[in-house]
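ingest -> validate -> predict -> emit
validate: passed (alphabet ok, no gaps, 341 aa)
predict: started
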Amino acid sequence: MLHLIILVFLTNVGGLHASNNTGQTSREDGSISIIFVGDISFDGCVRKYVDQGYISYNDTMLKVAKIIRKADIAVGNLESAFVSKSMQKYSRSGVKRLRRYSDARSASALQFAGFDVMTISNNHLNDFADRPVTFTKDVLSKVEIETFGYNIGTYDSQQRSVILEKKGIKVGFLGYCDFCLKVRKTYKAGAAIYRNDIAERDVRNLKRKGVDVVTVYMHWGTEFTTSPTTRQLRIAKYLHSLGVAAVIGAHPHTLQEIRKTNHQVTAYSLGNFLFPFISDCAPRYKNKPRNYPTRLSRIFRLQATRNGVIGASYLPVEIWFDWKNKILQPRLSNGTQWIDV
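emit:
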């Protein structure tokens, strides 16, 4: 019963209503579509079963690739850096928790799915020190995926932002981690750190370059919670005051509410998208409910013009582990019926 209550809450949180559309992007208003998804990692049982020959990395995205490819721009959060075998011996000292990494071969799955740009600003970026930062950027570049949310040098150095232009509309992407400062100070490269003055500087730089729509992907909040913290609310408000059109959140591993006002929108957490926990694919958890909060996700879509966000909708997603074929996949749980915000 508790799981049912959680599912109903997460499906309807944030004032979302059930009027659906066909999923076809309107071109008459001169807008573009931007899709965002949550946490992605090819670690754990995903890498295990690829290595054992059960699946390919591309198989993990089979159920959602057609939707993602329809967007003018598709964005995700890569929450485990690409790490070579030689880099694995340089793991961060003093780490007592799980360290996550992905094999560089898994980048093909992101290309297959249709992603154009990835944020790497998160608390796992420096799990194996700082060499994976530029390595991850280079691996993604080889499959024609842009990268943002990191910087080289001191923690407050300007990050490498990304600007993509579609149909004459320039979209700028920034990414920050809100709680990685201590680790970031240890290394010469890592996640871009959030601070009000840093964000103000970076947003202004994008606007000087003629960017029409500024988006910020935030790694923030408290894990396994379904409501944004006071700090999340405060940061989102400040970013919007700078003229940021969309603030997208990750890290809680659960869904949090979406708020839209005028031409701005905040999705506080999109949950996991492909993020294998032990509880997702270990035999002892086989009977765990599919609608457990960490298995619920969204494909979030914005319609944007030069003036900002003119529409927002999402597709509900469930993260399923296919025990027979040994594959973890995000799958649409509502067909292709988009739910309007």
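The chain has one domain: 34-302+315-340.
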